[in-house]
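Sequence, please.
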């Protein structure tokens, strides 16, 4: 029977645990604010773990966050003149219509003064 010291068991156990990063460390690596990282976690938009009520992130979480916000180039848009499948349309010209002339409303105090004068 072999005996293990508490030191050797602790060393093996700690080596197997993933390192947890604070929101400030993730924010610095991403170039965003700590508040942004916490808000994204609170909204459930990024993966996290919350031991003892604090947001923490593993290296896998960080890699997933980077993948989530990755921008890929989209399909190249072909201009309408070059695309044989779209019909080039000429814009319709709309005849100008006469716009009604706007008039300002009479001020309320003027209306009130007239009604008080009529009553008196």
């Amino acid at each position: 029977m072999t005996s293990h010291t508490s030191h050797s068991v602790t060393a093996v156990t700690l080596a197997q645990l993933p390192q947890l990063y604070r929101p400030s460390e993730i924010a610095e690596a991403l170039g965003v604010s700590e508040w942004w990282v916490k808000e994204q976690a609170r909204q459930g938009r990024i993966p996290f773990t919350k031991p003892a009520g604090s947001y923490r992130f593993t290296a896998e979480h960080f890699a997933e966050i980077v993948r989530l916000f990755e921008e890929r180039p989209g399909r190249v848009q072909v201009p309408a003149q070059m695309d044989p499948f779209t019909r080039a349309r000429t814009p319709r010209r709309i005849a100008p219509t006469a716009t009604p002339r706007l008039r300002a409303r009479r001020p309320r105090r003027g209306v009130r003064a007239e009604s008080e004068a009529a009553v008196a």
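The chain has five helices and no strands.
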